[in-house]
Specification:
496 residues; alpha/beta; 8-stranded mixed β-sheet; 6-stranded mixed β-sheet; 13 helices; globular
Amino acid sequence: MRVAVAGFVHESNTFSSQPTRLQDFGIREGTDLLEAHNDTYHEIAGYIAAARELDMELCPTLSASATPAGAVTSTAYEEITGRILEGIGALGDVDGVMLALHGAMVTEDFPHGDAQTVRRVRGLVGPDVPIVVTHDYHANVPPELVDVADALVIYKTNPHVDQRERGIEAATILARTVRGEVRPTMALAKPELVLNIYFHNTSVPPMQPLMARAIDLERQESILSCSIAAGYQYADVESMGPSVIVVADNDQTRAESEARCISETMWAARDSLITDVPDPASAGRLARASDEHPVTLLDFGDNIGGGSAGDSTFVLEQLLAQGAEGWVMTLWDPQAVQACVDAGIGSAISLAVGGKTDDDHGAPQRITGTVRTLSDGLYKEREHRHGGGRRHNQGLTAVVSVRVDGGTGLLVLNSRRVSPNSIHQITSAGIAPEQQKILVAKGAVAPRAAYEPVSPRLIEVNSGGACWIGRGPESYQRANRTLYEWTRSTKQGEIE
């Protein structure tokens, strides 16, 4: 069987001031697409692994991905989608299509960009060619995507360490569909609540028991797949929020019943979903007082993997003000990197760093110190980590040994925004994390897979920025403003 393969991945934060342009995407075409993913833990690696066992010929077209940021420009979306469609069309007759899409792409023209992509592919291949889609756990799934795809498979872990397995699952469903062994029927249920990213960790409640239930359901006869998407609260779109998707074998009634049942279970837990996260000042004090080292501060508001800027200074400001000792923090600031390059290794330097993207991520902070190292910013990850990637590039990178009254720290300045999914982001810069007292990771749940093995204690930080966890309904125009959490009245001052 001949199967077309394409990927188009972007998590679009509509509260980001940085649009995502064509030049922001890394693009692979043809056989290079398969070669680039073959040794990774990405879902396309799962497609490849499954194809070897299923007598499936993969016909690669194009894959594109970019670091989360603001909405994708119309120019970028149309160029990439057009090339995908052109590639599939050039293949002639195919038996099926597999699409690796994020599920939270927003474009300047389409609030649900991924659904638009699947709709266009369906229009090209016709109604009889099965299309199986994989999505990120943070997808906002609209009904129209379920209407045009044959099956949707979503990661079951956060941090995302099961992407390869979900790719195998998706490819298996497609192969069985092509062979006439199964006939997928799919149902979507959406509990009307905001599942704050604070609760997205699949290793603990409320998500752990829900995922366990989904896995148990998949063991039952006639159930091909059960997925739960936590949703992505930083995309202001109509279908923002969690989703339950059940794919049954020629049993629409069963699919709808099971999806509704899990959705109702999530809804029943709604009153336990109250965030209680320290602000940067409180988190700094907790870290300094800890007897366990290193402590990792998770900078929620500047979650790079969620589309934030990567140059927020709210946490840095507190580390400096409190005279914290032995801290490490990564900051996106190409200008500061260049200043370090111009000064040279070993040179004393005084810089205003961070807070340069916009007014939402804090003010630039004045630091004084010594340029410790310069590097190209390339590093590799060999373990299963969030995102499934192995090769990373944070661009030209400088490490500054910072001196402040009562404390010292290491500031890693990079030239490219990279989510802290690998501890090698800092080890590649010559830093031994186990020798530090405080590590700062600009993320929410994703960095846990990399930082938990080296850090006995992790502290979430309710910081400001594009990924602020306290953002309320007044910030939204398209999303349902009556979703639960926003309509609950609590002592914390949430609205009626």
